[in-house]
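# nightly structure sweep
# worker-07 picked up a monomer target from the shared queue
# config: single-sequence mode, recycle default, output format = structure tokens
# input follows
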Amino acid sequence: MEQGEQEKLLRENLKISRDNNKLLKKLHRHLIVGRIFRIFYWTVIIVSALGLFIFLQPYLDGLLNVYESFKDFVSDPRGSIIESF
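# output follows
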């Protein structure tokens, strides 16, 4: 190979390497941003679910008490009616 041909190949290789480096940096940036949004997304979902549970817990306890009372009434209707008077 001639000196000029080697230099041309080296310059072409350098250009391709720089373009490749730019693309890899973009991919890495998008990967990091994607991870941050995914963490934010799941944090919002988990915190919302916990908040909803805490907000609805008194109502769920009330429904559970009504269900227990109804279950006791169905299992022994006479005893439940007598006790309520």
